Amino acid sequence: MSSRFDIIHKDAAGRIGRLKTPHGVVETPTVMPVINPNLQTIKPSEMKDFGAEILITNSYIIYRKDELREKALKDGLHALLDYDGPIMTDSGSFQLSVYGEVEVTNEMIIDFQQKIGTDIGVPLDIPTPPDVHFRRAEEELEITIDRLKEAREMVKGDGMLLAGPVQGSRYAELRERSARTLSEIGFDVYPFGAVVPLMESYRYADLVDVIAASKKGLDPTAPVHLFGAGHPMMFALAVAMGCDLFDSAAYALYAKDRRYITSRGTYHVDGLKYLPCSCPVCMSHSADELKKAPNCTELLARHNLYVTFEEVREVRQAIWEGNLLELVEQRCRSHPRMLEALKQLYKYSSWLEEVDPASKSTFFYCGPESAKRPELLRFGKQLDRFTIKGSALIRANSGKTDNQYDNVLMFKPPFGAYPQELAEIYPLNAEVLRTPDYESLEQAYMNTIRLAELNPEAEFTFIMQERFEHPLVKELEEMDNFTVVRLESE
């Protein structure tokens, strides 16, 4: 557990936190723009204007180039980049994954990062790609763990923070084992590595599995960095699973390819008739002017950064208000592969329920996937707290209490039946569909059947409206203590 990371607000597994570094406190979740020491589309000194609180660059690139190395050793990393805020440095692991070898050892690159004054250093881990054989993934993980232990021995005290990358390819067993081992060693930040190939191939459901397995092995309060995650479309999803830091070269790489980022996806600028954004770039240029501008690449990079940090603020506000999962569901409907990821996310609802705050803002039902949210799982677990004795009326609409019954319950999909006294209590104060979908009704009736089973001595009468018709109603009708009265219309 990092003593330098404080959590100040939570929603789902997401949180607003403060990470203390030698060059200042960073509020999370946030994005670290990637700075290429050799080629800077936008100067590091300008990054704060977009909302950046921390940057990331590559210490291996600096080390390999004589001019950069000497200046960094003499004046420090911050002087080299002309940036006075926190800076994280990667170790060359990316180059290792691309080229198969690098010209430094783990010990050399850790020592170099300390000497140039980096705020968060990264050991030379081995980023095992997806879809390799289990044995290879396990062998490379063991090498990574040995290197991380070596790095931990080298980095002591209150200076540079040390990252402990969690590896293990796509194998949940290895990811969780890696995370548990690194937790025992103790690091300041825990990056989840080698996930870029999954994102590049839109395998977001697999990414969900990797994050979930890694998180299960960590202390839930440990700060997490999702390496290479730079598109704002997936920030909400990753944050809801407990990721705190992202790094993005996408703003510059996409700009070079004339691509225009939005929180819903990416456009090629040459196909745009209008600019659907209100950032300074888009407000001062028409689509045609942007396409023809001699500095189009720089302008696109600036737009991409504005949009990136706008989404960061959107996610933070959603956490603060307690509606992060609603934002996740909105963002995940922007692409079929993201929708797959949303469905995969709710397969981990039992884990999310353990960390999700018990009370927050109004629950909004946003579609069939909402019926699997952790709030529904928690409600189902609490049904045994409802003791129903005597006669009980279940109805959909609130109104004057019927004194003919000992109990009056409300029926609201996807929750089912519950005492009307709880109608204004979260999450039963939910905004839901007037005409429920199949999934919402299924969950509601499963809960109602369970409630009747838990209270076998009670006699339930359900005033069922036509819009609540569902195959599970037959199971209710077959119960000894349940009567269903159908209404043709409301």
Automatic annotation (TrEMBL):
User: Which is one Pfam family of this protein?
Assistant: TGT
> What does the record's cofactor remark say about binding?
Binds 1 zinc ion per subunit.
Q: Name one GO cellular component term.
A: cytoplasm
First and last residue of the signal peptide: none
What reaction does this enzyme carry out catalytically?
Answer: guanosine(15) in tRNA + 7-cyano-7-carbaguanine = 7-cyano-7-carbaguanosine(15) in tRNA + guanine
Q: Which Gene Ontology molecular function entries are recorded, alphabetically?
A: pentosyltransferase activity; zinc ion binding
Q: Which cofactor does it need?
A: Zn(2+)
Q: Which domain of life is it from?
A: Archaea
Where substrate is bound, by residue?
D125, A194
State the EC number(s). 2.4.2.48
Would you identify the family this protein belongs to, as annotated?
Belongs to the archaeosine tRNA-ribosyltransferase family.
* Name of the protein in its database record: tRNA-guanine(15) transglycosylase
